[in-house]
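Same chain as my last thread, 567 residues:
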Amino acid sequence: MSDLLPLLAERDLAAPLAWRGGQAVSGAQFIAEARALAQQLPDGRPINLCQDRLHFALAFAAALLRGQTSLLPPNALPETLRQIPGDGTAAYLLADDPDLDAGGLPLLSVQRPTDVEPAQAMPQIAASQAAACLLTSGSTGVPQPHSRRWRQLVASVEAEAERLAALMGRASLAGVNIVATVPAQHSYGFESSVLLALLGGAAFDAGRPFYPADIAEGLARLPRPRALVTTPLHLKTLLLAGVALPPVDLVLSATAPLSPQLAAQAEAAFGGILAEIYGCTEAGQVAARRTTAGETWTTLGAMRLRQESGAGADLGEGRYLVDGGPVEEATPLADVLVLEDERHFRLLGRANDLIHVAGKRSSLAHLNFHLNRIEGVADGAFWLPDARGEEVVRPVALVVAPGLSAQQIITALREHLEGAFVPRRVIQVEALPREATGKLTATALARFARQTLGIADADADADAEEAVVDLRIAPGHPAFAGHFPGRPLLPGAALLSLVVQALERQPALRHRLGATPAIASAKFLAPVGPGARLRLGLRAQGQGLAFEIREGDTPVARGQLTAGAAG
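reply #2:
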């Protein structure tokens, strides 16, 4: 591989590389804006927290051009930012929210540079440059760094693009337009939306739609061929919402295995193919499959798999390693596999989620797979309580399935699971406490299960009952335009939008409202103008949440949030 690699894969620079509000941004324009932004960057290590995907991509490209490594944390909480491991180089934030709590770090507000002429030449990046450092929340809560060099990212995305194009029956991904529901800071969202455009020939939409109607609208705004990059949770919610869906040529899913039924439903609804990506932060994207074609995964590009020790595919026997292509050193995977050969495998589940019940062994991922494939189950997860004395502990199923009884779910599970793993208790809940990417951590599930079942938890705290969020209304907020000449006021709808956005950053409260939270009532008590500093209070109230917004001691708005209709 050459010592220098281009910023963008070979493409027509006049063609769209990104879309924003239905307007195309060409590759030539993107390069020019990235170069202009690079001149504004200070020395140091940039932490890229941009929420707009185009802003994120520009900030990432600008950092590359400056020879800087972009740090991509799991969230934007000040405590997380303060715990990012240092290397002696000062860190600073790149964000498109100038009012973000920077945790004491310098913040550069990212906006698209103006008055730049489209570029004529392609910038070259050192292949060995550490381009990105993905940070995951480790077992201690301190973000753990996983650095990726530019040559590794190029090789990884080239292999992914080649596979996806083949599945679509295309020579390349040129002209494919991507809408993604996952954040760009997440390794999957980073590679399969931003980098799939920069290095794979596609184009991405700048937004990150969350609600089903917004996802459908975002897709319909882009020309075909279209791709939706999402997660099983977002996909299931979208398909159950009953909104009209435009044709989508490729649906890409990751973070958890999909059931064949949901994959078939998605292909029927969108009229395209559904593919899954398997990978991890440590190794990047490792394999792909078309779910409706079978449960076997095939590695991407030159990547190969082997078992470190032991023989056969018995659960828990030896570690599984991947190397080749972008994975330059053999890297252990956290999952248990059944290897068909060095390129093909079946996935059994996480190595650390093996459970033993009545002398038998299984994987929570295996149990969850069969739970979520039941027709009528919108979401669900198994949880194994702690053992008490000599009693045999049985798994509990927490399920979002308003149209099914507990007995119907148990009967369906008996067709696929050994008797020891069929739950004695099925608990109906409104929603599970998933993160924005759709992930459900073991800690969050355990706390939620104990709270739901009324089991004492020594680690429980009050943050599941209330939260306080500081908001600052930017003087240039676009909602002020036309509201009203001579006396700009923030419309109530914009204020409620901020409440919903703040709620998405509070997963312990968010899960109370199900898949489609709704505003049950709202009362506006005082005007909000440019530069206002507000404090939003959220607290549990019955089955929903109450909210109050204050500016200093003055109440601005009050209301209630509740679970919306599922369809």
